[in-house]
Amino acid sequence: MSELLLISASGLAREVLATVRSSGRYDVVGFLDDDEEMSGIEVDGAPVLGTIDDAVRYTHAFLLVCVDSGRPRQAVVERLSAMGIGTNRYATVIDATVRMPDGCRIGRGSILLQNVTLTASVTLGGHVVAMPGVTFTHDDVVDDYATFAAGTSLGGGVRIGRAAHLGMNSSVRERTSVGSYATIGMGAAVLGDVPDGETWVGVPAHPVRDAGFNATAAEL
Q1: Which of 55, 133, 216, 217 has the fewest Cβ atoms nearer than 10 Å?
Q2: What does the DSSP assignment read for 40-83?
Q3: Residue 28, beta-bridge partner list
Q4: 14-65 residue pLDDT tens
Q5: How far is CA 131 from CA 39, 52, 94, 146, 208, in A?
């Protein structure tokens, strides 16, 4: 059984820990987190062993970045890369309930939790997170660091950009795209292309233009 370190003692990391323990594929040796107050404590029975910089000490362990949102997840991977940690060090965690048809590809460092569905020729990049009940249909292509909250559904031939965030129970119409670093609100129905960096909400989804709108990706 390979050793695994979870980067960030987040809620996502706790869900990953439960999935990994059920599968028996990895032995989770602990968490690494920059919050000094967490140093030395246990989270769901696994110890917080140090900060993210301590990853270089655990040369025989696989790593999995469990930061909730795509942009900060990307920043952690880039930080680890600057310390000499390459792509081959990252684990990929796929829950046992997820069926992987031939022709589907999943990048390193990605996380697919319970009852995620992939139909045909789905391509997910590296460090993608799909929470329970997400549906990817034929020919969907997802770039690195994208995040899909529970219940998100994509029609066929959808393109999702780098570090985009799709909120709980949102849906995207077939053959449309969501740009890099874009955010889709909870329950939104995307019927047309979403440009890079924009936030869209509602049914049908529309861009948010109010300068006073300050919801974070996690809230959406």
Answers
A1: 216
A2: T-EETTEEEEE-GGGGGG-TTSEEEE--SSHHHHHHHHHHHHHT
A3: 4
A4: 999 999 998 878 999 999 999 989 988 999 999 999 999 999 999 999 999 9
A5: 27, 24, 11, 11, 25
Amino acid identity of residue 16, one-letter, is V
3-state secondary structure of 73: helix
The 10s digit of each residue's pLDDT in 143-169 is: 999 999 999 999 999 999 999 999 999
Q: Do 13 and 35 contact (CB within 8 A), yes or no? A: no
Pairing state between β 189-190 and 159-160: unpaired
Cα separation, 125 vs 109, in Å, equals 9
Q: Using CA atoms, how far apart are residues 46 and 191, in angstroms rounded to an integer?
A: 43
Class of residue 193 by CB neighbours under 10 A (exposed 0-12, middle 13-18, buried 19+): middle
Nearest CA among 172, 171, 180, 164 for reference residue 217 = 164
